[in-house]
Amino acid sequence: MALEFGTPEWARALAGAINASSEYRNAGAKWGVGFNGNILFAFDAGGPLDRSLYLLVRLEGGRSAGAEFVPGPSHPDAGFTLRAPFPLWREILTGKTLAATAILTGKMRVEGNTIALLKHAGAHRSLIHSVSSLDTRFPGD
Amino acid sequence: MDRLYQILQNRIEGAVATPDEFHPALMTNFGNLFQWAPRFVVSPASARDVTATVAFAREHNLTVSTRGAAHSQSRIAISDGGILLSMSSMSRILATDRSGQPGPTVDVEAGVIWRDLLRHLAPEGLAPPVLTNNLSVTVGGTLAIAGIGVASFKYGTQGDNVRELDVVTGTGEMVTCGRKKNVDLFWGSLAGLGQAGIITRARLDLRPTKPMTRTYYLLYHDLAPFLEDAKLAMVGGRFDHIESWASPCPQGLKPVGGRRQPFARWFFPVHLTVEFDPAHPPDDAKLLRGLSPTERLYTDDVPTLEFFERMTPVFDLWKRGGTWGHVHAWIESVLPWERAADIIESVLPDLPPSILVGGHVLLWPAQGRASQSRFFMRPPGENLLGFGVLPAIPPRYWEQARPMLENLGRLTELMGGKRYLSGYIDWTEERWREHFGEQWEPFCALKRTYDPDSILNPGFVPFPAKGASRKPKARAAGAPAAD
After folding, report:
1. Mutation test of the interface with chain A: which of B251, B266, B399, B414, choosing the one with the most A Cβ atoms within 10 A?
2. Do the chains contact at A23 and B349, CB–CB below 8 Å?
3. Tens digits of per-residue pLDDT, B312-368?
4. Could you give the 3-state DSSP secondary structure of residue B255?
């Protein structure tokens, strides 16, 4: 059954999906090792999303130590923030736009060390794939 | 019949062809990415024909694009409804001057193929200092881009080894330029993408060669020791040529974004070459001292001319394999040495080796000070690394491969690399500005001076419209380029 985007259940399921993904386990093996790899995904209000949502995903060495929606646009545990309007996130999660393209063209804003993020492009592609493979009911669906 | 055909034909000694006469291959280039139909194809017999063609174009409000061997891949060497000057018809090797100072030179027309020049010079024991891997390209074509090869770490670009040029500007004037005469046009024609003028003659520096070469085939299993040794091999001039690759050993299929695609373990072969006289063979131990390859695989002695032509059988193989007609969207960049490992290690893990059938991944160590070129853009720093992903993509897979390759180009630019412009370039004005940096305004000024009506090689570089603000848009430091 589809889980509702933005709920604690959805966030927990995401952490489980990441840990079940052999693609992420391999591609993300070096992500977060020796540096803070936790990522705050900022889904800025727009389109059918009427209020911004912030998802903190804790990542280290190809595994997730948990995911949760947090109240504000920043979090002390986040090493990186990826920020984009919700309609762009939908394009990324449905495979119409590559996250790397959104980052490299400046449509998605990166807070944190962009170079470090780009060095691990494979890890983020598989992370995004984990998000997009969750059976999700998004706003507007 | 086109009403202008006979008028143009009457003006020139060479041939004029209309769309019903010329070969359709003239509508595209090696990239097979863009298709433009010219109104006329002119095969000039002389520089006078080029001058007459430019004058004709100006009178009739036509554009003039230049084409050599058309090894480029973007909107260059093709023409959208204008005149395409097929410079291959100007292929005379004019004169060699062995007593030239500071060294020997040769005068050639712009359409001379580098291979023909090499073979012409070989009996005299002379060669241009820098040769491209593909020798089937023209002198004028590579000089207009830059021209780099396995000796560039020592001698810079081919453009760095030019003494003098004859150039027909966009105003239709024939100008002789050199290092002390019409200097801005000289450097503006070298790596100038044909934007200021059309090169019709070049006086090229030559160097004496030795009859034989010895190449050491070294293999590195990992990038870091390869980079260390590549830097060491460039120092002190102990080698004459350095050539290296990232070479895939396919490992099967792995999921990438949920879709299984081939992946590879990458290895790093390096070929280090010295020229020698058979009476004085090289001292292998001395040459290889301090280098630590994983394996020393092979040592090959071949005549120097054969070494220069070493890639010809490879290209023949690609042609026989049918990949020569595929889409070539080559992403070639010059990387800052300190970022090279990060970039390469982020790209190779997900680069499917299947797109390299009929292509390869080149790594070419270089030294920044070897080039004086104004418009061959490279990162600052002493040591640089060329990184070329040179795929051959079946046309039906182009749209699938395109985002990955475009992102590779953006990634190298964002991380401080500079693109080599014969490859796949489809940029906005802002990205052109980023590429040229402080040289963008001089490049635009050159265009305004020598081609004020923008008739030469349009469609590639989006120069600002006349009267537009020349002030670059502000961009936050480190922010990605907008596209």
Report:
1. B414
2. no
3. 999 999 999 999 999 999 999 999 999 999 999 999 998 999 888 888 999 999 998
4. strand
Read off the DSSP letter of residue B15.
Answer: E
Burial B157-175 (b: 16+ CB within 10 A, else e): bbbbbbbbbbbbbbbbebb
Spatial distance between the Cα atoms of B197 and B177, rounded to a whole number of angstroms = 11
> Hey, what are A41's tokens?
């995904």
Whether the per-residue pLDDT at B223 is higher than 50: the answer is yes
Chain B CB contacts of A84 below 8 Å: none
Residue B254 CA to residue A7 CA, distance in Å, equals: 32
Which tokens in the block code for residue B462?
């989006």
Phi, psi of A108 (to 5 degrees): -105, 130
Is residue A139 within 8 Å of residue A86, measured between CB atoms? Answer: yes
The predicted structure's pLDDT at residue B483: 40
**pTM reported for the whole predicted model:** 0.92
Q: B257–A106: do the CB atoms touch at under 8 Å?
A: no
Q: Is A76 helix (H, G, I), strand (E, B) or coil?
A: coil
Side-chain half-sphere exposure of B233, counting CA atoms within 13 A: 30
* B window 234-263, beta carbon within 8 A of A: 254-258
Q: What is d(CA B173, CA B142) in angstroms, rounded to the nearest whole number?
A: 22
ipTM for the complex shown: 0.89
